[in-house]
Sequence to fold (225 residues):
Amino acid sequence: SQTIHQWPATLVQPVGSPLSLECTVEGTSNPNLYWYRQAAGRGLQLLFYSVGIGQISSEVPQNLSASRPQDRQFILSSKKLLLSDSGFYLCACRGRLTDASPLHFGNGTRLTVT
Amino acid sequence: EDKVVQSPLSLVVHEGDTVTLNCSYEVTNFRSLLWYKQEKKAPTFLFMLTSSGIEKKSGRLSSILDKKELSSILNITATQTGDSAIYLCAVCGGSNYKLTFGKGTLLTVNP
Fold:
């Protein structure tokens, strides 16, 4: 079964600074990868998903971008953070896109923008 | 736009109580409904339901899907303090099998 690694676990960054969050997956090949954000008191919002290397779909226009440089690596970035980017960022993995099976999540990164 | 609504948003009970959590949805081309439990970090998968009326059960937790009413319930019997968590409902639908999550129900079980 797959294991999802995310780092760092917590991060405090000033407004206007850049961001890079990394997610790597073990135990599967050619996974579908997802970035979700969970703001306080809200559900999980899908930010990006990727079906393969270099293939990124954006769900919500925002201050963030994503990249997939390797099959099992997914990176979330920002050039200049906003206060509204604070939240809990979760990377998730699923076997195939056309698959109603469960997503499996990493342990998340809690980002506070000050 | 796909929509998932959970109720109640929060609930406080005593150990031993039975609780029922609700989830209703509007989604294009429904594929499945999933329940997750989230403690401090990653949501962990509980159940996936695809057929109406079939109960999925694991120990003290059970869930049923009603596709006619576009809803699902999650039951927890004989609650324990370890059941305290956010319970998330998600619906998979559309051509890209997208998962849409509700806001969750925060369950607190007091000793």
Summary: The CA atoms of residues 55 and 64 of chain B lie 5 Å apart. The longest strand of chain B covers residues 30-38.
